[in-house]
Amino acid sequence: MSKIESESLKISIKDLTGRLILNQNLKTIGFIANLDFDLINGAYLITISNSNNEKVTKKLLIAR
Question: Containing H/E element for 24?
Fold first, then answer.
């Protein structure tokens, strides 16, 4: 991803069937962004993209 300390990010979280759970824009400050969400236990895919259209998708596991 980018090496810019403060930038706008687009966050999307989908369940494994492809259903969109969360779509949110965030602003980083000092390479840190806080995201509050309430997901039930399970596996999700989180995609983070920046204004340069760089994106990364990772698996997100929730187990409480």
Answer: strand 20-27
pLDDT tens digits along 9-54: 999 999 999 999 999 999 888 888 888 888 999 999 999 999 888 9
Q: In angstroms, rounded to a whole number, what is the distance separating the alpha carbons of residues 61 and 34?
A: 18
* Phi and psi, residue 25, nearest 5°: -100, 135
Using a cut of 0.85, tell me whether the model's pTM lies above it: no
Burial class (CB in 10 A: 0-12, 13-18, 19+), 50: middle
